[in-house]
Amino acid sequence: MSDTLALTCQKHLFRLPNNIHYLNCATRSPFSLRVEQAGHDALTQQANPFGLHPDDFFSGAVRVRALFSALINNPDPDRIAVIPSVSYGMGVVARNLSRKPGLQAGQRIVLIGDEFPSDVYAWDRVSKELGLSIDVVSMPSRSEDASQPLGERWNERLLNAIGPDTALVVVPPVHWMYGTRFDLEAIGERARSVGAWLAVDGTQSVGALQFDLQAVQPDALICVGYKWLMGPYSLGLAYYGPAFDDGIPLEEGWANRLDSNQFHRLTEYQPAYRPKAYRYNVGESTHFIQMPMLEAALTQLNDWKPERIQAYTSMLLANAWPILETLGCRVEPVNGARGRSHHLVGVWLPEQADPMAVSQALQARNVSVSARARVLRIAPHVYNTPDDVTVLTDVLQEVLR
């Protein structure tokens, strides 16, 4: 498919019934037929593993590293590690924070408010061990300076929090609950100017929103595979930059060592790791069944292109926002890298509305979204149709009026 052509609905590539309105990719992506078939093929192959070669333990991940690197504009696939979860990926950052040049007790770890737990729990122990404090930059109140969009104010508040005493900044491109975007290029520049590390949780954006690694220059980028990468559960990918070269892994896996594909020499114990991020691979990173599924998903995403996914989801929901605003709902405006995304949108319900009751009413009509606090999280993808959005708005009009 040409990069210049607008995406049309891709529902024919998924096994989604017409009466199911799945607007919830932020919770979990459905498998495409292509990914499903890759899983079936891998299962069939594993039923008879005769002829398996040592290099087969590594080749699938090599292809996946290259595909993921193409998706994020990373020129060096050797900087990609295979991980099982965000907590594991952030655990690597926490494990190596003590090695950061110039780190001193009393410095701060800067987080954003209402962040996903895996991006919060990672720092409790290490902050105590290293004498660091945790600075949470909360979302501004809507009553504060309402003339300026909330996303703009939150970004400014975060940038102002990054100073000479900042050791680490942890931030996503898109807030997992609210859909608010963070200007990672500006945040990365500010972090570098004060010598702070930048760790990005790209789980709720990479694959559906363009991410330019060379422009952002994070020290770490961590993504799980089962949301916007559209792959299987318990398999993810992480980029670790030069700050993590020669670092300390969470595990001492045999496959992460030099010459580990030479099975006849495995008891000639090798102290040296494979280059760059390989030392951070989770054990049993081959994933004979899941890796081909992730490979199929990444191949498809590189064809679709994140910028075209954004354009499709923007078009899909364009007519819904005026309807929801008449019901008293609030949606953050589009404001570049400091506004809202199109693939994950937080809809603030009216004060009198019960988010769980609204969610249950939608579920009764086979509309799948997520209620997070007072926000209804709507997360469409290319498999969604205008009819999905029509049913969503019809139910909301019935419930909120």
TrEMBL record:
<dbReference type="Pfam" id="PF00266">
    <property type="entry name" value="Aminotran_5"/>
</dbReference>
<dbReference type="InterPro" id="IPR015421">
    <property type="entry name" value="PyrdxlP-dep_Trfase_major"/>
</dbReference>
<dbReference type="InterPro" id="IPR015424">
    <property type="entry name" value="PyrdxlP-dep_Trfase"/>
</dbReference>
<protein>
    <submittedName>
        <fullName>Aminotransferase class V-fold PLP-dependent enzyme</fullName>
    </submittedName>
</protein>
<dbReference type="InterPro" id="IPR015422">
    <property type="entry name" value="PyrdxlP-dep_Trfase_small"/>
</dbReference>
<feature type="domain" description="Aminotransferase class V">
    <location>
        <begin position="63"/>
        <end position="373"/>
    </location>
</feature>
<dbReference type="InterPro" id="IPR000192">
    <property type="entry name" value="Aminotrans_V_dom"/>
</dbReference>
<keyword id="KW-0032">Aminotransferase</keyword>
<keyword id="KW-0808">Transferase</keyword>
<keyword id="KW-0663">Pyridoxal phosphate</keyword>
<dbReference type="GO" id="GO:0008483">
    <property type="term" value="F:transaminase activity"/>
</dbReference>
